[in-house]
Amino acid sequence: MTQQAVDRNAADRVVPLVNIANALTVARLVLVPVFLVALFTAGGHDAGWRWIAFGVFALASVTDSFDGEFARRWGLVTDFGKIADPIADKALVGAALIGLSVLGELGWWVTIVIAVRELGVTALRFWVLRHGVIPASRGGKVKTVLQTFALGLAIMPLPAWAAPGVATLFLLAVVVTVVTGLDYVAQAVRLRRAALH
What we know:
By secondary structure, the protein is mainly alpha-helical. It has two domains: 1-105; 107-197, no CATH class. Helix content is 78%, strand content 0%. Helix 2 packs parallel to helix 4, helix 3 (47-73) runs antiparallel to helix 6 and helix 5 (108-127) packs parallel to helix 7.
C-alpha cells in the first residue's frame, strides 16, 4: 500500500467535529439557561412555568442518555465531546441544584455536598490523568440517575404531600453521591501508587 493510500485511510477515519453526538451535547448546554429562565419566571412558583422548566430539564437529561451512546455506537467520539459532555452534565445538574436552593426549596447543604463531590472527582481525574483513567463506575451511574430523578420531581409543581418522598430521594442521592465519591478517591490513590511503583 502506498503512503498516499495510508494517508487517505487515516483521513477517512477522522471523526467530524460536527456530528449528532456533539450536537446533542451542545443542545444540552444551550438548554441550561432556558431551563433557568423557565424555573425563575413568575418568582419560581407558577405551576405552568414549573412544568415548562421540568420539560426543558427532562429534554436536556434525555440528550445525556443519547449523545454518549451515539458517539460509541457510530464511532463519533471526539476530544470536544469528551470535554463538553461532562461539562454539560454538571452545568445542568448544578443549575437545577442552585436554582432550587435559591428558591428555598432545597437545602443548600445538599447542593454544596453534591457540588463538592463533583468538583472533587473532576480534580481527581486530572490528578491521575497521566497515570491512567478512572472509568465511570456503576455506582456513579446510579448516582446520576438518582440525582436526575430527585431533581426532576423537585422541579415539578407537586402537591405538598409528595415533599417527604422527594426529600427521602434526595437523601438517598446524597448518600450514594458521597459513597461513590469516596470510591473514586480510593481508585485514584491506588492508580497513583501503582504508577509510582
